[in-house]
Each structure stands twice: as structure tokens, then as C-alpha cells.
Task: inverse folding
């Protein structure tokens, strides 16, 4: 097993025990793991951002996410960082910026995403719907949320997809 794999396994194991730690202790444990990586390591920065986010410090999380993305974060962590950054910004009263980030993320062609990244497309839509609602774009938010839900239903997929699209074109949604 490479050092990177061992580090990843320890990060995963720590996240599985998040609720076993006090918030400050959890952040300290993540910081200790991050300190094992080279300075400015994108994955380590992301994990610190997520730790701050998950323990109620979204302002600090935003800075870690931005630094991780600027450091060239890739793959699944990059997509997670965009979602989590957008969510934190929305929670901090910046839903317009959240909409911008998530709209750009949603517009990435499917062929440029791997299977793990594609699996988070529903999360992108869900958080975009929240941000749209916060900006007063309720019909777009409902359309997006219903469109994301439609494929998951055992029946009525086609009807729900149609109605979700209609929310964007018909003033009364009929």
C-alpha cells in the first residue's frame, strides 16, 4: 500500500468517526492528518475545509475550499469542494455566488466527468435548487428539484419530467 493510500484510508476512517469527537478535536485531528502532506496540498486543504464546514465554521471552510481549488484539486474532491463551497456561501448569505458556482458545475459536459463525479450530479442539482430558492427563483428551483427526483420514482417519471419543464414555461405550471 502506498503512503497516499494509507493516508486516504486514515482520512476515511476519521470521517466515519466524526460524531465521536468534539468539533474542535475533530478539526485538530484533520489538521494533524493534513500536516502529513506537503504544504499547499489540495486534498489536505479540502479535508480541512470539510472539517470546518461539518463542525459549524463555514467562513473558515470557504477559505480552505478556495485554496484547495486554487491548488489544483481534481476529480471527486474537486466536485465535492465546489458543492460544499457553494453551500457554505449560500449559508453565509451569498446565494447568487452559489448559483454561479453550481450552474458552472452543472454545465460541465458529462464526458469530462468520471463515474464518481457523475454520481454527485443530483447533489449539484439539489444545492443549486436551494440557492435558486434563496435568490427568489422558486419556479426554477422547483423545476430543478423535481427534474432530479423524476428518474428515482418507480412510476410517473415521464409526467413529472414534463411538469418540471412546464414550471419554466407556463406561468401557472399547468
Result:
Amino acid at each position: 500500500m502506498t503512503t497516499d493510500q494509507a493516508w486516504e484510508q486514515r482520512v476515511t476512517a476519521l470521517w466515519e468517526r466524526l460524531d465521536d469527537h468534539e468539533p474542535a478535536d475533530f478539526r485538530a485531528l484533520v489538521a494533524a492528518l493534513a500536516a502529513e502532506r506537503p504544504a499547499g496540498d489540495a486534498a489536505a486543504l479540502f479535508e480541512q475545509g470539510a472539517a470546518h464546514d461539518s463542525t459549524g465554521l463555514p467562513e473558515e471552510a470557504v477559505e480552505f475550499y478556495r485554496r484547495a481549488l486554487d491548488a489544483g484539486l481534481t476529480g471527486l474532491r474537486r466536485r465535492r469542494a465546489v458543492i460544499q463551497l457553494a453551500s457554505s456561501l449560500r449559508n453565509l448569505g451569498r446565494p447568487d455566488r452559489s448559483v454561479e458556482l453550481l450552474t458552472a458545475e452543472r454545465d460541465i459536459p458529462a464526458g469530462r466527468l468520471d463515474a464518481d463525479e457523475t454520481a454527485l450530479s443530483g447533489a449539484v442539482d439539489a444545492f443549486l435548487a436551494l440557492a435558486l430558492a434563496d435568490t427568489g427563483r422558486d419556479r426554477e428551483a422547483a423545476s430543478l428539484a423535481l427534474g432530479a427526483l423524476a428518474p428515482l420514482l418507480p412510476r410517473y417519471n415521464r409526467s413529472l419530467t414534463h411538469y418540471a419543464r412546464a414550471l419554466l414555461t407556463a406561468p401557472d405550471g399547468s
Observations:
- Residues 103 and 128 are 7 Å apart (CA to CA).
- The mean pLDDT is 94.
